[in-house]
Design a protein that fits this description.
Blueprint lengths: L1 E5 L4 H12 L5 E4 L3 H9 L7 E4 L2 E4 L3 H5 L2
Parallel strand pairs: 1-2
Antiparallel strand pairs: 1-3, 3-4
Length: 70
């Protein structure tokens, strides 16, 4: 399962979502404007978005090469 932490106003977050959509990967988007999702992100030890989590893989920011490895 791929989880993307981000916000609707975040341009790099939009790029991550578009990249995953284009490659046909299913993911859950967790908007950090919702307090529960923001607390979850902080609990992972991260404060910046986008953050992509899949199993033990964590990708901070928009990194196409790393996203292709998912």
């Amino acid at each position: 399962m791929i989880i993307v932490y981000g916000a609707e106003w975040c341009q790099p977050c939009k790029r991550v979502k578009a990249h995953l959509d284009k490659s046909g990967k299913e993911y859950i988007f967790k908007d950090i404007s919702i307090e529960e999702n923001s607390e979850e992100l902080n609990g992972l030890g991260f404060k910046s978005i986008p953050l992509v989590v899949s199993g033990d893989i964590t990708i901070s920011g928009y990194n196409p090469e790393e996203l292709n490895k998912l």
